Amino acid sequence: MSDGLFMMDGGAVFGVVPKVLWQREVKADDLNRIPLYLQSLLIRSAGKTILVETGYGSKLTPRQAEMFGLQRERGLVEDLDARGVSPKDVDIVINTHLHADHCGGNTTLAAGQAVPTFPNAEYWIQRGEWQDATHPNERTRATYLADNFQAVEASGQLRLLDGDTKVTPDVKCVLSPGHTRHHQSVVVDSISHAAVFVGDIAQYKVQFERLAWISSFDLEPLVSLETKRGLMDWAIQRNAIVIAVHQPLICRVEKAGPNYRLVSVD
Ligand SMILES: [Zn+2]
Asked: What is the C-alpha separation between 73 and 90, in angstroms, rounded?
């Protein structure tokens, strides 16, 4: 599932890594921007339809859309519709965190008011992330936008999680801090298959492979580093598939000397 892509300063995405190194991985445009995809995951498990992440959504003004370099042929709701899923069919929406590029589609404008896009869904968010998002500071307020989540509380559709939480017997929310203090990922772990939808643990493939390549958006970069190490080791041990948000990646993980290697799954 996709809400399109937006353009972000490449230096910000790659943090302290010099451009001479990161530009081997992705070419920047003439404003030094690189694409970040807005991928969501749709899971059907135990009779539930579960949507993880909602992209930027439809509330951006034309000026904001231009500023973010938003590019989409169709938005997430249209993409779901093309696969026969209407907003009312979604039982659970999970946000890995509440940055605007991950939860903007939680709500939609109706008569100028933000209302939940998915009228029958519970929205599952970590309690700590909710607290940080509803009490932003000078560093976080540009991306914690109340319009993306407060209507969900007002409508009684909010479910706050306290740490790792089972969604169905095969699906769980797992804390994966670093990008934000209470960031979570979604793990599918059944007898036959294992997969993880990573949220913003990392944005580009190389940032999983090299633990020290960490975006400057991460609030706790050294925590991110250990989260990535744990994730990569778990993925190797479980032969799990890693699914990313900001790059169209579906990979398995191998050890490669001191680093890791992500290998595309066909
Ligand atoms: Zn993001």
From this structure: 22
Q: From ligand 1's centre to the CA of 168, what distance in Å?
A: 25
How far out from the chain centre does Cα 126 lie?
Answer: 14
Pairing of strands 122-126, 92-94: parallel
- 23 φ, ψ (degrees, to nearest 5): -70, -10
Average pLDDT, the chain: 97
Q: How far is the CA of 99 from the centre of ligand 1 (A)?
A: 7
pLDDT (0 to 100) of residue 68: 95
Phi-psi region of 232 (alpha: psi -120 to 50; beta: other; left: phi over 0): alpha
Does this model's pTM top 0.70? My answer is yes
Q: Which domains, from first to last, does the chain contain?
A: 2-264 (3.60.15.10)
Q: How confident is the model at residue 266 (pLDDT cuts 50, 70, 90)?
A: confident
Task: Name beta bridge partners: 9.
Answer: 33
CA-CA distance, 246 to 204, in Å (whole number)?
7
> In angstroms, rounded to a whole number, what is the distance separating the alpha carbons of residues 249 and 52?
16
